[in-house]
Amino acid sequence: MLVPENQSPTVAVLLPCYNEEVTIGKVVRDFKASLPQADIYVYDNNSTDRTADIAASEGAIVRKEPRQGKGNVIRAMFEDIDADVYVMADGDDTYPADAAPAMVDKVLEGYDMVIGYRAFSFTFVKTYPVLSRGFEVETEMTIHSLNNNLRLFEMPIQYRDRPEGSVSKLDTVGDGIKVMGTIFRMIREYKPLPFFGGLGAILGIIGIVLCGSVTVDFWHTGMVARFPTLIGAVMLVIAGLLLFITGIILDVMAKNDRKAFIIDANQFAMMRRQK
User: Fold this and answer.
1) Spans of all domains in the chain
2) Architecture of domain 11-188
3) What phi-psi label fits residue 110: left (phi over 0), alpha (psi between -120 and 50 degrees) or beta?
4) What is the pTM for the complete model shown?
5) What is the pLDDT of residues 169-181, one digit of tens each?
6) What Cα–Cα distance (Å) separates residue 5 from each residue in 9, 156, 200?
7) CA–CA separation, 102 vs 82, rounded Å?
8) What is the number of other CB atoms lying within 10 angstroms of the CB of residue 9?
9) Of 89, 7, 8, which Cα lies nearest the Cα of 42?
10) pLDDT in tens, 36-52
């Protein structure tokens, strides 16, 4: 990331929160100590406890997001806040704030996203389309970054257990299903040729095998005794061809989307340098 020489980079700490009154005060204090130059934003996602009041009393900028779900909160944060570097963590005190300066440095070196908890560049934040509503948004971020060949850096972070009295909001089964669904959806969207081509190949091979068995019977008897099998086999081959053609068309569209993303990213980077 290029920052004008006459100004220091701006840093925003993003803390999406839902009922974190036990921990949010300490999290804000820790980030103020490790990143004293940063603005700390706490987005309250319909908390029913004193999360927002405690965060405000510690000096955080508190905003409300009525749409429930972490993905919705991140979308609002990315839309509302402008900074050179963004650091995002949870409000449950499971991530050490003292790792944040090193993550900021990596973004300033030119990385688009640093993975421990997460740090982002301005260009990443303003060009990333947040589609997921819940916790699966982090899976979406990673796949989006890999698909668009963004610069990623993985930084080992010591994850901590929640302190006593702090309750996790994760639903192991429900959120796990959502994450798997997100992976499935994004493979279909970002890699359509292998996805649809693979399905088409499977159907086509089954159809060809069935056609072959009917052909063998005809070779020996001179009669087609299994018309339903023949019709079904031909339909499978046709369906396989259609899926393969669909994969080719969608693959061209996906490549055009990646080209458009690069153009948008370059435009945002240029705009940032001109400020």
Assistant:
1) 11-188, 191-274
2) Alpha-Beta Complex (3.90)
3) left
4) 0.74
5) 666 677 678 778 8
6) 9, 30, 55
7) 20
8) 16
9) 89
10) 999 999 999 999 999 99
